[in-house]
Amino acid sequence: MITRATGAGGMNREEAPGKSPEDMYIQQKVRVLLMLKKMGSNLTPSEEAFLRSYAGVVHSQMSQLPQHNIDQGAEDVVMAFSRSEAEDRRQ
Protein backbone atom coordinates (compact mmCIF):
# COMPACT_ATOMS: atom_id res chain seq x y z
CA MET A 1 0.00 0.00 0.00
CA ILE A 2 1.30 3.43 -0.94
CA THR A 3 0.72 6.27 1.48
CA ARG A 4 0.82 9.80 0.22
CA ALA A 5 1.94 12.75 2.27
CA THR A 6 -0.65 15.45 2.63
CA GLY A 7 -0.02 19.08 3.35
CA ALA A 8 -2.22 21.99 4.33
CA GLY A 9 -5.88 21.22 4.01
CA GLY A 10 -5.23 17.56 3.22
CA MET A 11 -3.97 18.40 -0.26
CA ASN A 12 -2.15 15.50 -1.89
CA ARG A 13 1.35 16.67 -2.88
CA GLU A 14 1.98 13.89 -5.39
CA GLU A 15 -0.96 14.74 -7.63
CA ALA A 16 -1.51 17.83 -9.71
CA PRO A 17 -4.28 20.06 -8.35
CA GLY A 18 -7.56 19.34 -10.10
CA LYS A 19 -6.46 16.01 -11.57
CA SER A 20 -7.82 12.73 -10.32
CA PRO A 21 -5.59 9.63 -10.07
CA GLU A 22 -7.49 8.26 -13.09
CA ASP A 23 -6.71 11.40 -15.13
CA MET A 24 -3.04 11.13 -14.17
CA TYR A 25 -3.01 7.44 -15.19
CA ILE A 26 -4.59 8.22 -18.57
CA GLN A 27 -2.12 11.04 -19.21
CA GLN A 28 0.87 8.83 -18.33
CA LYS A 29 -0.41 5.89 -20.39
CA VAL A 30 -0.96 8.15 -23.40
CA ARG A 31 2.57 9.52 -23.08
CA VAL A 32 4.16 6.07 -22.86
CA LEU A 33 2.13 4.68 -25.78
CA LEU A 34 2.94 7.71 -27.94
CA MET A 35 6.61 7.39 -27.09
CA LEU A 36 6.63 3.70 -27.98
CA LYS A 37 4.85 4.46 -31.25
CA LYS A 38 7.30 7.25 -32.03
CA MET A 39 10.17 4.81 -31.51
CA GLY A 40 8.68 2.44 -34.06
CA SER A 41 7.11 -0.13 -31.74
CA ASN A 42 3.96 -1.81 -32.99
CA LEU A 43 1.07 -1.14 -30.63
CA THR A 44 -1.62 -3.72 -30.01
CA PRO A 45 -5.12 -3.07 -31.36
CA SER A 46 -6.32 -2.32 -27.81
CA GLU A 47 -3.49 0.22 -27.31
CA GLU A 48 -4.37 1.90 -30.63
CA ALA A 49 -8.05 1.98 -29.57
CA PHE A 50 -7.03 3.54 -26.23
CA LEU A 51 -5.17 6.33 -28.06
CA ARG A 52 -8.14 6.94 -30.38
CA SER A 53 -10.56 7.14 -27.45
CA TYR A 54 -8.39 9.74 -25.71
CA ALA A 55 -7.61 11.82 -28.82
CA GLY A 56 -7.75 15.11 -26.88
CA VAL A 57 -5.14 13.91 -24.41
CA VAL A 58 -3.05 12.55 -27.29
CA HIS A 59 -3.07 15.93 -29.02
CA SER A 60 -1.96 17.79 -25.89
CA GLN A 61 0.81 15.27 -25.15
CA MET A 62 2.33 15.19 -28.65
CA SER A 63 4.18 18.47 -28.19
CA GLN A 64 5.42 17.45 -24.74
CA LEU A 65 7.21 14.25 -25.77
CA PRO A 66 10.93 14.40 -25.04
CA GLN A 67 13.29 14.16 -28.01
CA HIS A 68 15.49 11.04 -27.98
CA ASN A 69 17.83 9.42 -30.46
CA ILE A 70 16.11 6.91 -32.71
CA ASP A 71 19.03 4.52 -32.04
CA GLN A 72 17.90 4.04 -28.43
CA GLY A 73 15.69 1.06 -27.76
CA ALA A 74 12.08 1.77 -26.84
CA GLU A 75 12.61 0.34 -23.36
CA ASP A 76 15.51 2.73 -22.73
CA VAL A 77 13.39 5.67 -23.86
CA VAL A 78 10.48 4.72 -21.62
CA MET A 79 12.83 4.31 -18.64
CA ALA A 80 14.48 7.68 -19.35
CA PHE A 81 11.06 9.29 -19.64
CA SER A 82 9.92 7.73 -16.36
CA ARG A 83 13.03 9.02 -14.59
CA SER A 84 12.52 12.54 -15.97
CA GLU A 85 8.86 12.48 -14.87
CA ALA A 86 9.87 11.40 -11.36
CA GLU A 87 12.49 14.16 -11.19
CA ASP A 88 9.95 16.76 -12.35
CA ARG A 89 7.53 15.69 -9.60
CA ARG A 90 10.24 16.03 -6.94
CA GLN A 91 10.96 19.66 -7.91
TrEMBL record:
SUPFAM superfamilies: beta-catenin-interacting protein ICAT. It is found in: Cytoplasm; Nucleus. It holds the Pfam family ICAT. This is Beta-catenin-interacting protein 1. PANTHER family: BETA-CATENIN-INTERACTING PROTEIN 1 (PTHR47142). Transmembrane segments: none annotated. Residues 1-23 are annotated as: Disordered. Residues 11-88 form the Beta-catenin-interacting ICAT domain. One of its GO terms (cellular component) is nucleus. Belongs to the CTNNBIP1 family. Residues 12-22 have a biased composition (Basic and acidic residues). Its main location: cytoplasm.
